[in-house]
Amino acid sequence: MAVDPEGSVAKLKGIGPKLQETLGRLGIFRLLDLLIHLPTRYQDRSQLIPLGELRSGDEAFVEGVILGSKITFGRGRGLEVLIGDGQRELRLRFFHFNKGQQRAFEDGKHIRAFGSVTFIGRHLAMAHPEYQVFDAPPGPPKPELIPVYPTTQGLSQARLRTLTKALQQLDWPKAPGTPFEKLLYLHRPDDLARAEEISEALALDELCAYYVVMKRRALKRRKQQAIALPQKDGLDRTLRDNLAFELTDAQRRVIRETLTDLENDVPMLRLVQGDVGSGKTIVAAFAAIRAIEHGCQTAVMAPTELLAEQHQLNFQQWLEPLGIQVALLTGQMTAKSQRETLQRIASGEVQVIIGTHALFQDKVVFHKLALAIIDEQHRFGVHQRMALQHKGAYPHQLVMTATPIPRTLTMTLYADMDVSAIDELPKGRRPITTHTAAQPKRPELIERLRKILAQGQQAYWVCTLIEPSEEIEALSAEEAFDLLRRDLPEFRVALLHGRMKGDEKVEVMRAFKAGEYQLLVATTVVEVGVDVPNATQMFIENAERLGLAQLHQLRGRVGRGSKASRCFLLFKPGVSQAGQHRLNALRQSQDGFYLAEQDLKLRGPGDILGTRQSGEQSFKIADLSEHAHLMPRVVQRCETMMNAAPASNDGIYLTGLLNTWAASDNAHLSV
Ligand code: ADP
Ligand code: MG
């Protein structure tokens, strides 16, 4: 009898409750989940590499005779097995091992091992290789492509391989067009080129499934009822007249597009893309005014407390002169002031409510919510479902992101949204000159900084860690704070990081903005929303540890005033090639769209979409850094298909994958 792909994975032989739980951590619950848990790559074990030809960094399949083994006591107890092939020696090192394993490494026996080669001093070594011991010289290896899976603690590759091998024995439904055979092949291919072809075909299927789900979602949303917000009192004109600056043409266009959407009772879902500093916040303010003119409320969601507080200041400055009440709601507020704020929200006394995730709590009940604005949407993760408690009408949504996503991706990934781009920076912005420097150059940079600070300008010094770490070699914010206070005693230096209390953070930011501190040492909490035009110098420690998008965001904290700005990317010597490419790309370009394309090439889209931060996986098969070129085909294929059967998308051959997408409901934010 054909197996049910939706059936529990526990139906496979050898899966007990413990393993089931471990698999659950990988999102594997059903047999289908295991089937689409595909290898990220394959090990080529067709060729043995002589030990004399190994280079550091190689992943290699090797063979030798065991020359000896011993327990070592370095950083923790270890087992070291020395092997040789007559040419050269190699140390196999194990940090988790048992007695039986230890005994099996008998001198004179033959061994085959697969792993990554490193140098320890002058010695070649391989840590935790996969291996097999033989009594006599084994014959030539049989050519095999061994799958390597994404895994989690407590689940070995070998175990996963056994499980996916067991999948091969099941009787999968054989209806034409079902992808099961293709998926099974990818677990045990015999030809790499064919595996790639199949994986691309499946990626196309998956992207199509996603696209269709997005489009269906948009259709469903359009059937909902929102509050129509036609043009009214002209408060927006007052705001424009009060502004200290002229709106850019791009801002005007995006405001117009947004306000036009709001005139309808069809719920808006508009994504505003605009590079750091392009001025998205004021666009949001114009949208908020429109809702308020109709006696409705606007919620503004920010990913961090710091950004929420910055927004509060901006919105107050813009809107309070118009008689509009702005409130802040965050998780760090005292219970009492939270209660009071909740009360003012429920009664409709405040019209603009700015907050963090705290806005999603059940107890937040709006009086009359017409518009939800989600800022820095990428930081929430694409797939996070956000539900605001609202009564009656469905709110319009304005989603803002500083991560410029390449257009090819936007078409598919945001297929359920309308997209506006602020593709112009305010006039008078000076370009930011970007330099890269190895950390030993730090003293020279500090001297340079001294001169700039003496001229009355301000600076950020950003670190990737709060305090020193045993595992990660990087200068922490606490260390940098001590160092810079010591080296620059004539200036006032402040420290800001995410573990500080909310009001402490606010006070530090206020004082820095007011010029009471000249130098702000911070973690990446300053990545979004911090706006101090007099700060012209940005130093980023261990820039090699950060992604392009994040570095670009951080750099965007300077270059906000009329003075020339500089950004210094400090890196640890010995940075990887990919790391060097990233830093060079930043030095060469300040164009967020260009950098996004580069990021996609260098790292994959995890960071662009924020999935990495939120720990979610976006696609099972498709890898956007590899398959971006499929997007036009996705759109074309799906549009044709949906036009052919507009009422229902039945009959599509997208198979179980579509159900997987739909069932997991892991598409965009939906309010
Ligand atoms: P982002 O798009 O990164 O969110 P913000 O909305 O924080 O950018 O705007 C960055 C800074 O530029 C703010 O100080 C804002 O007041 C200012 N700003 C916005 N629009 C303009 C403009 N048209 N001209 C000059 N400054 C502007
Ligand atoms: Mg912003």
Structural class: alpha/beta
| Small molecules bound in the structure, each named once | adenosine-5'-diphosphate, magnesium ion
- Outline the biggest β-sheet: 7 strands, parallel
The proportion of residues forming helix, as a percent range, comes to 25-40%
| Low-pLDDT sequence parts | 605-617, 646-656, 661-671
Looking at the overall shape, the CATH architecture of the domain at 235-422 is 3-Layer(aba) Sandwich
According to CATH, what is the topology of the domain at 235-422?
A: Rossmann fold
Note the total helix count. Answer: 23
Shape descriptor: globular
- The CATH homologous superfamily of the domain at 235-422 is named P-loop containing nucleotide triphosphate hydrolases
In angstroms, what separates the terminal alpha carbons?
43 Å
Percent of residues in beta strands:
15-25%
Provide the residue-averaged pLDDT: 86
Concise overview:
37% of the residues lie in helices and 19% in strands. It is α/β, with parallel strands linked by helices.
Helices and strands, with pairings:
Layout: H1 17-25, H2 31-35, E1 41-44, E2 59-74, E3 76-84, E4 89-94, H3 99-104, E5 110-120, E6 123-127, E7 130-134, E8 145-148, H4 157-169, H5 180-187, H6 192-222, H7 235-242, H8 249-262, E9 269-274, H9 280-293, E10 297-301, H10 305-319, E11 326-329, H11 335-347, E12 352-355, E13 369-374, E14 396-401, H12 407-413, E15 418-422, E16 432-438, H13 442-454, E17 458-462, H14 477-487, E18 493-496, H15 502-513, E19 519-522, E20 535-540, H16 548-555, E21 565-571, H17 577-588, H18 592-603, H19 606-609, H20 611-614, H21 624-627, H22 631-644, H23 655-664
Parallel strand pairs: 4-6, 9-14, 9-15, 10-12, 10-13, 11-12, 13-14, 16-21, 17-19, 17-20, 18-19, 20-21
Antiparallel strand pairs: 1-8, 2-3, 2-5, 3-4, 5-6, 5-7
The structure holds adenosine-5'-diphosphate and magnesium ion (MG).
Adenosine-5'-diphosphate is lined by residues 245-248, 251, 274, 276-282, 402, 426, 531, 560.
